[in-house]
Every structure is written in structure tokens, then in C-alpha cells.
What does this fold into?
Amino acid sequence: MKSLVYWAKQNNAQQWNSELSKEWMGSAGVIAGLLYVDGRVRVYHGKKTKLPKRFVTREKLCLRGMSDYWVNDAIGQPYFVVSSAHNKGLLSILKTEIIPKLLKEVPNQPTESELTRNPQLSRFSVIFDREGYSPEFFKQMWEEQRISYYTYRKYAGKDWPEEMFKEEEVKLHNGEVVRMMLAEKMTKLSKKVNVREIRRLTQSGHQTAIITTDFIPDMAVIAGTMFARWSQENFFKYMREHFGIDRLIEYGTAPVDETVKVVNPAYRDIESRIRSVSQKLGKRVSEFGQITLELEDKNITEEDEEMKKYVIKKSQLQEVIELYRNEVAGLKEQRKQIEKSIEIGELPECEQYSSLTNEKKHIVDTIKMIDYRAETAMATMIEPKLSQRKTTRVLLRQIFSTEVDIEPDIENKILNVSLHSLSNERSNKIALKLCKQLNEIETVFPGTEMRLVYKLVSL
It folds into this structure.
């Protein structure tokens, strides 16, 4: 594995990250074939470029920024990140950037002969939320690449009868075992692709629908794999709070490929107008229907004086409804004349934009991935010694922020790292055991022949 200095000099941080992700996937074992993909918006408040706006869930606003799409394993550890200035969405990024990269890097993929012998076997599985939902895409990827997908179902329809559900033991990828009420049946989406639909029944009576084109594992394994997606959400939360993954690393801009297709602003504007008028139309239609119900409830006949008021009101609403319907029809005709997508170079000058430069960010993001993975490994070492799993990283952060004395022993080729005493005796005991485990690894300090030896200095 080449050093950080080498990749920095080569100005190719992405290649460095690719080399690392291959190594990480190779050491991941059975979970290497389960890839979790989700996007985050890195908000940009600067004035050097007018990046397209996109919805930021945590802010509940549409803001300008870059989209970062992270690929993680089943326990939340990161493999790589793809950044995009374009507001194309998860599905587009999956097709153009993430899937081609995974096809090259995921280890131990089945051979063509193995795929032929077992028509249900897939190369690997990709798990994401409803943003990537597309029956056409599922069908294409299965038929062309033999890649299976897990996601939540859109438009799930009616609830299934409760007698279909049975209690299953579900083992999560972090080792935790839970019990869930699950049911399964085969479903055809949009008359295009056959999928397994698995539903979980909660104590409140809510049914969560999962769909997948992975036909081999038991439904309990499918449920455990899908619900492990929360490990990626936890990763985002932790990295935002303690690693600053949303922080702007550099302030430069870079040109974008002007041949890339983006949504035509004129098409987007007319779509917005159609939605606005349609909402007004729906409201008036609802009011018209309410008047009809009131007449039936009050049993008002045509001879009643009060009927005149209702007739006038219905007549006025009918006129407004007709106007809105005509306006919607006219807007839809206009929409037919407008291209939905155009190249960036064809955008009006006021709408054109550049990308934020990403080289330094990719280097820093890769370092943060290494750090997070190292912290996760140490958390695994000390977790059995703690009563609550959530306190493991708290203790590690305390260790990281504690002062140390570094003393080189040139003669014996040892670099002594002496950790100062922690806040209490219990923490000291755990830190002492961690030092012992780290010493057994016999790590050599990079660029030297000196072996790291960790000690705890009690005050």
C-alpha cells in the first residue's frame, strides 16, 4: 500500500481511497457483499458559485450545496464517498458512478459460470432508502449485472392480515439478536420485476414493507440486513458531531463537464406552477364535494329558501374549478414543448455553476475514514469490558484528548507513549488493557524502525 505522501504528490486522492476501499472490502468477510448507500448535502454558503439547490433533511430547507454519497458496510464503517455538484439524485449517481466502481472493487464476486448455474445468485447487494426506488432500475441491474437491491417499498398499499405474521429471531450484524413479527410473499412491481416483499409488524400495528431482488437468504436475514441501515445513519450523526464531515475544506472552484444533463430550469418552473394550480384545484373540488354532502345531510330540497345560497356558492365554485382545470391543461401543453433535461452548457448564464474543488476534501475524508475505522476497532476491543455499548466511544474520546509523554528509546528502537491518568480508576483499568492489546500488535511508527509501546502513567 502506497503512502499518503505518494498519493498527495500524485494529486489523486480518489485513487488512494479506491486502493484502501479494496483492502477494506477484502478484509470484511461475508459482509463485503452488502453495500449501504446514502447521500448527504454539504451546504455551501459562499458566493464563488451558485450551486443547485437541494433539500436538506436536517434543516428542512432547500439550500445550495454539494451532494456526498457514502458507501458503508453493514456495521456502518465507510468504504468510499462520491461527491457531486449536480442535483441528479441517488438513482443517477448509482447508475453512473457507484455501481461501475463497485463492479471493479467488490471482492469475491461469483464467476459467470457460477451465475449461470444458480439463476438466483447475485454479485453483491446494494441497500438504500426510498430515494433510489425504481422498478425499472431493479430490473435492469438484475438482468444486466446480476446485482440485487434492498429498499423500502413505495406505495405499499393495504396492510396484510395479521395472521400472516409470525415471530422470528433476527440477528443484526453487530451481534445483537431481536425478535420481530415478519411476513413474506412474492410481488411484481409495475408489472416489470418480481421481488420478495417482507413486512415487519410493529406493536403499534404499523407495517414496514421491504422489497429485495435477493432471493437466497431467509426473510429474517433480509430484515436484519435492511434494518442495519440505521448503522449508516448513526455513522453520519457521529461523523458530523465529532469529525466535521460537513466542514468546508477548501474554497476553490472547478469547472464541471458542460455535457452533463441536468433538469431544465424552465421545465422545473412549469412543473412547480402545475403543482401549485393543481393544489388550488384540489381544494376547490373538495369544497364543492363538501357542499353536496351538506345538502344531503340537511335534507334541503329545491323549494327551500336556503337552497339558493348553496346554488350560488356551487355555481361560483364550478366556475373557479373550470378556470383551474383549463389552466392546468394549458400548462401541461406548454410542458410538452419544453425539454426536461438539457446540458449544463445550455443553461442560462445566471443558472450556470461550477463545482467546489474536491482534491483536499477527498484526502481529508479518507483520513477521517481511516480514523473512524481505527476507533471502531478499538471500540470492539474495550466493548466487552463496559456495561453499556454507547459509552465505548465516549471513553475512547477521553483517551484521545488526554495528554501523553512521547519518549524515544533509540538504542532499543522503541517509541514509548505514556498516557496520563484518566478521570477514574475504572477507566484507567480499561485503558491499561487497551494499551496491552495495542502493544501485542507491535506497530512500527511510520517512516521509522521504532516500535510503539503504550503505557499508562498513574498519578
